[in-house]
Amino acid sequence: MKKLLLMVAIAAVAFMSCKKEDAGEITGSGTLNFEFENVVGNQPLVLTTQNYTNTKGESYKVDMFKYYVSNIQLLKADGSIYNVPESYFLIDQSDASTLKPSLSNLPAGDYTKISYTIGVDSARNFAGAQTGVLAPEKAMFWSWNSGYVFVKMEGTSPTSTAANHNLIFHIGGASATVNAIRKVSFNIDPNILRIRTDKSPIIHFKADVAAMFNGKQNISFATYNSMHGGLPALIIADNYAQGMFSLDHIHN
Asked: What is the pTM of this model?
């Protein structure tokens, strides 16, 4: 009899949970896992050894590629918005452990849109050197300019007129005249991102290095091959905001 009563109680709890979820009363918190896959066009990004070609027909290699993703915002199916506090990721192709970050303690629910900043918000840019992924040791902080590099790509190209045919693109700036902060948004359609206390979905993004050099303006490495912020960096920022990131798939 005790076993029967226990089974009835468990069934009742499960039934009530299902009823609450059916009614839209999803409670608790959960975890969202990310996967960032860096590519060049339709090819995987391989550092140092792989040759790629830009839209100008110029070959190049990538030795370094890393960028900040921050200020993540989630739109619920009911229209409410959740701004994830302290959400800063540094994605670094040379460090596999950075390619799969996660966020915990997110409100459980169904989400239909995700947005984030490419780079670091202006408040953090003007707050000096910080800790964690924003620490100067990550080599993404300009001590001379008191601000962050948002996207850093370094490599080589035989077309480059810089010393050793180097390519150096350090994109950043959050001032009134040079503001490289860019935001991207993705509709989660036709799927819904389902965050639950017992489910940790995975959202998979691709980041295309080649998009830095084509889109709003196609870049020739003979003309642009070394940037450390400044107005020319806005050309690259506009390009990558337009096409660098894509939402590839979701595992609920």
From this structure: 0.89
